[in-house]
């Protein structure tokens, strides 16, 4: 394993030495693991060009297939056109977990605990194991050796932070402490996708990467140079997570208060389960119970621990590392079921010594859901994301101030109670909408407020203009309203509501009146002899 840099950064200012540092991690990565798992289960030969697909496209490709021009994301017909002898296999994450279980058990002989990020990738903190073994280089060699004993060729990367360690594993590198941001700066922003662990999280991260590239942020260094205050309002919680990763930090900031207690659920199996189907049925019910418990407490977890106890007192335990966010019950169930299949299949010759009598699931590294939780009606749909991209595209064509979004705020008139903010800016109200506003126009408010007030004329029964006095008093009763040179007879009206704002700065009294003209209902505002339409009611 080669080192990118070594030693502390020369001339590093004292304030940087005391700055936040990411957790030092070691990542073991097996290249093209889904392909290796399919070969291990006899679905293909090691020398054949192999590709796995999920019905929409290729999700994994062997080195032999890549040499023929086949790439991930291709359609099956396109790939077969490039490589007619290509062996196509259905993707199966359960198979990937089952085949990777022997590797995980081999690693346990070197380190007491490592977390499964996804099949083919495992991660562990280096502080304890490297001290015990002597150095980080020795730890990397021990991990590679353990994987080799399990029959696979693996690569290990060591660095500060998850993203840096993942990328370092792909080139068997060690990034010196404090140099993660420097090593990430030149990397393509597409590398952020490597931290995703579920199909949904990969899709959301891919959408974010697409947006960043269209905005001209093509490298991780470009993203890291943005201010945090600029990232949150524009890109949300996922953008903040990507920003931290691009800076070489952990995905979540360190806790400054007592950590939330773990959420644990357990169930006894009666009769004991010695078959996968029986254990999977219990696992599904338990995963749903865990997800419900986390939702009630309003928390998410970074690690999921699965533990099974057997009749003879034995115990099997595995920890999955999650990439943040609220996992659905289906996603939790999948991980538990895959793990049970890995234990009960007996592929590694280390099946449970007796039937499983109890299952326990624990959500660890629990934190408040905050902005990571789903919205009231579920996760943001793909249509919403596409609408946001379309708004940004239009904004680039006609100007930032030409695409606006409304924000409710405090005020007396309908126009004052809405603030228009450029799309992408932080939607913050300038005036508290919950504060008391004496003299505000009573409900219901007009459904339509024109961008600019429409000039109007208001006359009484005698044909004379209706005016507003110095104290906001109405002189005359509205009988006819003329808008856009069209006169309408007033069949009913309400008010007036006089408003005198900013009198110390020369503001004049203004009076509001609601009028009904046939099928139309209008909100009129007047000053002196001038009138205009402030809103239209449905």
Descriptive labels:
24 strands; eight-stranded mixed β-sheet; Dna Ligase, domain 1; 31% helix; alpha+beta; 15 helices; 538 residues; MutS, DNA mismatch repair protein, domain I; DNA polymerase, domain 1
Describe the structure.
This protein has 538 residues and is α+β, with helices and mostly antiparallel strands. The protein has five domains: 1-6 and 19-173, MutS, DNA mismatch repair protein, domain I, CATH 3.40.1170.60; 185-253, Orthogonal Bundle (DNA polymerase, domain 1); 264-372, 2-Layer Sandwich (Dna Ligase, domain 1); 396-440, no CATH class; 454-537, no CATH class. Helix content is 31%, strand content 26%. The protein contains 15 helices and 24 strands. It has helices at residues 14-17, 33-40, 63-67, 76-82, 93-107, 127-133, 136-149, 162-169, 180-184, 199-214, 220-224, 228-246, 276-297, 329-344, 382-398, and strands at 2-3, 24-29, 50-53, 58-61, 87-90, 115-118, 121-125, 155-160, 173-174, 263-273, 299-310, 315-321, 356-368, 404-408, 418-422, 454-459, 467-468, 474-475, 480-483, 486-489, 492-499, 510-517, 520-527, 530-537. It has an eight-stranded mixed sheet, with helices on both faces. Strands 20-19-16-24-23-22-21 form a seven-stranded antiparallel sheet, with no helix packed on it. A hairpin with a 2-residue loop joins strand 6 (115-118) and strand 7 (121-125). Helix 5 packs across helix 7 and helix 5 packs across helix 14. It is elongated and about 100 Å long. Mean pLDDT is 77; it is low at 2-18 and 371-382.
């Amino acid at each position: 394993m080669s080192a990118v840099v070594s030693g502390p950064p020369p001339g590093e200012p004292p304030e940087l030495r005391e700055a936040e540092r990411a957790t030092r991690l070691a990542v073991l990565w097996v290249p093209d693991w889904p392909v290796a798992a399919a070969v291990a289960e006899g679905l293909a030969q090691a020398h054949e060009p192999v590709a796995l697909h999920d019905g929409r496209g290729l999700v994994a490709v062997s080195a032999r297939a890549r040499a023929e021009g086949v790439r991930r994301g291709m359609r099956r017909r396109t790939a077969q056109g490039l490589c007619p002898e290509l062996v196509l296999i259905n993707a199966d994450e359960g198979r990937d977990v089952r085949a990777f279980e022997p590797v995980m058990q081999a690693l346990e002989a070197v380190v007491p605990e490592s977390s499964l990020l996804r099949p083919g990738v495992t991660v562990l903190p280096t502080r304890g194991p490297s001290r015990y073994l002597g150095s980080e280089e020795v730890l990397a060699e021990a991990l590679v050796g353990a994987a080799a004993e399990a029959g696979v060729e693996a690569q290990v990367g060591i660095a500060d932070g998850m993203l840096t360690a993942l990328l370092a594993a792909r080139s068997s590198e060690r990034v010196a402490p404090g140099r993660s941001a420097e090593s990430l700066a030149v990397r393509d922003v597409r590398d952020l996708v490597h931290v995703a662990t579920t199909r949904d999280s990969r899709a959301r991260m891919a959408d974010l990467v697409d947006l960043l590239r269209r905005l001209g942020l093509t490298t991780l260094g470009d993203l890291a140079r943005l201010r945090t205050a600029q990232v949150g309002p524009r890109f949300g919680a996922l953008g903040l997570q990507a920003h931290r990763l691009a800076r070489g930090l952990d995905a979540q900031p360190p806790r400054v208060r007592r950590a939330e207690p773990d959420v644990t659920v357990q169930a006894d199996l009666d009769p004991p389960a010695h078959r996968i189907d029986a254990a999977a049925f219990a696992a599904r019910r338990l995963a749903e119970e865990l997800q419900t418990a986390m939702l009630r407490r309003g928390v998410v977890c970074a690690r999921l621990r699965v533990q099974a106890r057997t009749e003879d007192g034995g115990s099997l335990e595995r920890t999955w590392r999650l990439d943040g966010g609220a996992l659905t019950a289906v996603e939790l169930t999948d991980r538990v079921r895959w793990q049970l299949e890995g234990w009960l299949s007996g592929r590694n010759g280390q099946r449970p010594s007796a039937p499983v009598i109890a299952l326990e699931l624990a959500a660890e590294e629990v934190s408040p859901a905050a902005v990571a939780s789903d919205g009231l009606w579920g996760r943001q749909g793909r249509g919403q994301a596409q609408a946001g991209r379309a708004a940004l595209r239009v904004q680039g064509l006609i100007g930032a101030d030409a695409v606006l979004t409304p924000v409710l705020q405090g005020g007396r008139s309908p126009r004052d109670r809405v603030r228009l903010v450029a799309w992408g800016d932080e939607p913050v109200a300038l005036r508290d909408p919950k504060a008391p506003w004496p003299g505000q126009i009573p409900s219901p408010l007009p459904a339509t407020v024109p961008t600019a007030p429409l000039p109007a004329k208001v006359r009484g029964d005698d044909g004379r203009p209706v005016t507003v006095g110095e104290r906001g008093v109405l002189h005359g009763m509205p009988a006819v309203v003329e808008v856009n040179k069209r006169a309408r007879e007033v069949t009913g009206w309400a008010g007036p509501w006089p408003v005198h704002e900013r009198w110390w700065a020369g503001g004049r009294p203004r009076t509001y009146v609601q009028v009904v003209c046939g099928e139309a209902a209008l909100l009129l505002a007047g000053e002196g002899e001038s009138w205009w339409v402030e809103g239209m009611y449905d």
